[in-house]
């Protein structure tokens, strides 16, 4: 084995590191794979994404995987009432080969944000592409490091997908408020708590985004000049930086929670779990 300048042995997965460097790429790779498998399955179901005891009236639980509802297909178990659809009932021109499920219309939005996130890029380049699998560990050999070139320049779209994510924070916050009502009556259930926590965790992730940090603190010549430290932008940048320091935590907790919210509503809607609540029905 030959030593590579910079301190490690040459050869696939070779390293001088004595710690368990492989644990992080392993759990992130498996964890994200589990999320993708579940999300894909849930998206294709097209049913049991909504729950509200009784009929009509304001309020109910809507799975975040299905929000916003662009179109609603009628006659499906656990579907939301038609007045929740932005554009009414499912269009007749929809191709038969593609499942008629509301989630299929919207999931590309949040997915485009997560897949281009700087943190996600770091972990999936490591876990799936082994390029490299960890610091000071040799991965797939690259004769010359090229960075994110060629097709990977699309990753630069992250700064624009941020605006999609901000829209989802607003929409899912509205769903949280919606969950505090059942047939127009105010109350709170376990599902309400889950759907209120969901946009809070998502906000922790989105507002700690590197692109958002640039919006708040970028293009500033001097923060420490007179009035710099008292400016609103400086204070916002400090807050964003605090979230940004724990971006990995917010990325994972918000991702796990959104899947859990879908599972909870799916279970309650299909009658497998009981939603304990102040409404008592
Ligand atoms: S860098 Fe992770 S969400 Fe923007």
Using brief descriptors, characterize the structure shown.
two-stranded antiparallel ribbon; 4% strand; mainly alpha; 281 residues; binds FE2/S2 (inorganic) cluster
Describe what is shown at a glance:
The chain is mostly helical and 281 residues long. The longest helix is centred in the first third of the chain and has 23 residues.
Instruction: Choose one word for the global shape.
Output: globular
Bound molecules: FE2/S2 (inorganic) cluster
- Ends apart, CA distance between termini: 69 Å
How would you sum up the major sheet?
2 strands, antiparallel
Count of discrete alpha- or pi-helical segments spanning 4 or more residues: 9
How would you describe this protein?
By secondary structure, the chain is mainly alpha-helical. The protein has one domain. Helix content is 46%, strand content 4%. The chain has 9 helices and 6 strands. The strands form 3 sheets. A two-stranded antiparallel sheet has the order 1-2. Strand 5 and strand 6 form a beta hairpin. It is globular. The N and C termini lie far apart (69 Å). The mean pLDDT is 91. The chain binds FE2/S2 (inorganic) cluster.
């Amino acid at each position: 084995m030959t030593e590579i300048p910079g301190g490690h042995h040459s050869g696939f997965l070779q390293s001088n590191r004595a710690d368990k460097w492989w644990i992080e790429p392993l759990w992130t790779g498996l964890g994200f794979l589990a999320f993708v498998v579940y999300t894909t399955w849930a998206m294709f179901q097209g049913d049991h994404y909504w729950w509200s005891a009784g009929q009509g009236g304001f309020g109910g639980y809507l799975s975040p995987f299905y929000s916003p509802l662009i179109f609603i297909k009628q006659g499906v178990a656990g579907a939301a009432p038609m007045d929740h659809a932005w554009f009414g009932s499912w269009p007749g021109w929809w191709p038969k080969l593609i499942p008629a499920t509301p989630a299929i219309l919207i999931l590309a939005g949040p997915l485009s944000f997560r897949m281009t996130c700087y943190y996600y890029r770091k972990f999936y380049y490591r876990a799936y592409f082994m390029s490299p699998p960890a610091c000071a560990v040799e991965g797939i050999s690259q004769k010359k490091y090229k960075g994110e070139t060629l097709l990977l320049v699309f990753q630069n779209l992250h700064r624009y997908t941020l605006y999609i994510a901000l829209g989802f924070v607003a929409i899912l916050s509205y769903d949280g408020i919606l969950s505090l009502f059942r047939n127009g009556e105010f109350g709170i259930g376990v599902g309400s708590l889950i759907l209120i926590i969901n946009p809070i965790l998502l906000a922790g992730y989105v507002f700690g985004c590197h692109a958002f940090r640039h919006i708040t603190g970028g293009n500033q010549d001097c923060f420490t000049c007179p009035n710099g430290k008292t400016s609103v932008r400086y204070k916002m940048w400090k807050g964003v930086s605090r979230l940004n320091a724990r971006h990995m935590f917010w990325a994972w907790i918000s991702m796990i929670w959104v899947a859990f919210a879908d599972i909870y509503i799916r279970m309650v809607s299909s009658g497998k779990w009981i939603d304990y609540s102040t409404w008592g029905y």
